[in-house]
Amino acid sequence: MTSQSAIYNLSKLICLHASEWDTANNMADFKDEVLAIYQKGIDQEEVAEEKQAMTEARDAKIVLLEDKIKNLCFWDQITSGDIIAMPQRREAYIDSKYNPKKRIFPKGTSAEEILLGNEFDELEKERIPRQFPSDSNNIYHLHPIAFVEHMKLICGNEGVIEITRKWEHWTGSNYNSTTISSFEVGGTKIKGYIAEPYGAETIKSGKDKRIPVGTYNLTWHTSDNFPKNKYVKKGRPILENGFPKLYNDKVSEDRGILIHVGNDGEDSEGCLLPGKGLKKKDEKVVGIKSSTDMFYELISYIEKNGINNVKVMIKDEI
Questions:
Q1: Among 108, 156, 217, 310, which residue's Cβ finds the most Cβ atoms within 10 Å?
Q2: Measuring CA to CA, which residue among 247, 252, 176 is closest to residue 217?
Q3: What's the mean pLDDT in 143-170?
Q4: How many CB atoms are closer than 10 A to CB 65?
Q5: Structural domain boundaries of the chain?
Q6: How many Cα neighbours within 13 Å face the side chain of 203?
Q7: CB-based contacts of 177, cutoff 8 Å, min separation 6
């Protein structure tokens, strides 16, 4: 199928049919279907020796396939009940809402943690216990990407700094050329612009190029070049945790892609520079402005929500 609109529409279907992970309990039907497919090829062969060889190969592959299916299927092993025990879920709930840097008492004994525990207990009373449909192997199948995209519409992409690359400014040298994006933080009113280096995406360091589109995790970073007091001389507060650093399975932490203050590609070798407004020259977008204000607004948001609960998602519309 090559029609993108048809593919898109089909991805929205929710289909009710037998789970593939229960095939072992329906091996006879599945085996008959596979045999019928092989038989078509065997019937078309006219040479007796070749026909016999194909029949033997079919039988050997059926044996291997049966063994593989039996080892992979797990449907009859699933039972009702919690996957994660209540005490562990309670602890995870508290940890997700409590900043451990504030902890001065033993874990779980502070007033705030006790209140969060009580909050979890009240929510637990309304929770419907997990029930697994062991009496049927018919389940609903959803397109995974379409499902995620729909959940983003429902949840508003909360906790995601969504960056959309829109403009490029070439000066004649990669050193001070710039990629400019708009961004917004899901579930908030925070929005602005981002400046990055110009040029092709790369996962390699030392190239003065922007990072690939994708979703990134964040962690805190400090170094000699980026200390916590970097902007104190400008009259700005010390950065209690340092600078946010991006990474994922393709772009390692070692590349050192930070979010910091700057206005155009000259101020970055791959890092993201946030700003409140666009800098223009002859009506053309060439960079961003009010970077320090926007930087501290993002820092406040990340610290409040916890850096492990914030992602950066970059997409391209250039």
A1: 310
A2: 247
A3: 83
A4: 14
A5: 1-18+137-155, 20-77, 81-130, 158-316
A6: 10
A7: 168, 169, 170, 171, 197, 198, 199, 265
Query: Residues 275, 280, 283, 284: is their CA dihedral positive or negative?
Result: negative
- Using DSSP, state whether 42 is helix, strand or coil: helix
288 in Cβ contact with 278 (< 8 Å): yes
Q: What is the pTM of this model?
A: 0.55
DSSP secondary structure letters along 262-294: -SSGGG-SS-BEEESEEEEETTEEEEEE-HHHH
Rounded average pLDDT over 174-186:
94
3-state secondary structure of 77: helix
The yes or no reply on domain 158-316 and CATH 2.40.50 is no
Cβ(239)–Cβ(245) below 8 Å: no
- Residues, the chain: 318
**pLDDT computed for residue 158 by the predictor:** 80
Reading the block at residue 153, the tokens are 């519409």
